Structures are given as C-alpha cells and as structure tokens.
Amino acid sequence: MDALTALITRTSQGALTEPAPSADVLNHAFQAALRAPDHRLLRPWRYLVIEGDARQQLGELFLQAGLMDNPELSDVEQQRLLKMPLRAPMIVVAITVTKDDPKVPEVEQILSTGAAVQNFLLAIHAQGFASMWRTGWVTTHAHIQAALGLAAHESIAGFIYLGSAANAPRVPTPLTVSDFVQQWSR
Prior knowledge:
This protein is of the alpha+beta class. The protein has a domain at 12-51 and 88-168: NADH Oxidase, CATH 3.40.109. The protein has helices spanning 3-9, 23-33, 53-69, 75-83, 106-126, 142-147; strands at residues 16-17, 45-51, 90-97, 130-134, 154-165. The radius of gyration is 18 Å and the shape is globular. The termini are far apart. The relative contact order is 0.23. The mean pLDDT is 97.
C-alpha cells in the first residue's frame, strides 16, 4: 500500500483477532515510529510489547489498580478489567520518556511520541493489520506504571492493540478540507 492510501484509509479497529503482526511486520512498524519528528534527537519514547500470557498478567494489573481505587468493584467490572487486554492478540505500550533539555519543552516531547505512534499505526495498516490506540485511566494509574517499569520521568501515551480486523474495516467519513483549512494573510 502506498503512503497516501495508508494515510487516507487508516481507521481504528476495535474488534481484533489472530494473527498478530509478525516480528518482521512489527520491526517495520517500529522503524517507521523511530522516524517521527524529534527535535534535538532526544528519542523521547520507548515501547513494550505484550503478547501471549503477558496479556493476562496485564489484565490482573488492571484489576489490582481498579480494586485499589474501588474495593467494591462488581464482579462484572472485575471481569471486564481482566479481559481488557485480551481484546487483541498483541499490545504495544507507547511510553513518553521526557528528557530535561532547555531547548525542547516537555510538550514537544509528548507531541513527538504522538507522531511516533501515528507512524507506527500507519505502518501497521500499510502492512495489512489493524489497530486501536487506547488510553484512559489505565495509562495514568501509578500502580500500572510502576508494574510496567516506568521511571518518574516517563508516562504511558497509550496501549496500542494490534491484530487482524475481525470485521470489514470501517470506511472513513470523508471530511471537507475547507472546513478545517483557511488561507491566512495580514
């Protein structure tokens, strides 16, 4: 798939199934992620790959964190937390690694991570796989961050669920460019 087609046709896919991307596909996607804009080459990102039984362990972390926040969680909610990481055969955790640099503010490093994740998602799509970038309270919970080995200067940018689309991909709704783009002059 050419780059422009990938950019225009990529959508998030919530229903993911086997097969997960192969090591080769994943390597190409990470190579694309590592080409994100990165002022002063700080490399303000890193990634964790979670697959197989490690997904169940992640579900247990989600449950532990949920129970820390609300010891009265219903059985239904507890099961939901346990099963969240099982929605896809593979998960990549995108982590922002902020560095102290007088010329590169933290927000710019966070934006670099976002650009890296977008490159990763596009590369996954271009190679015939599907993805969903998930965030929410699980990205900011201290227990989950500690269990995943994050340092004080790191934060989770998202859990990227990966696999093959279980359903036909959604056709993106075309947007009118002129609704979002204007010419500027003084």
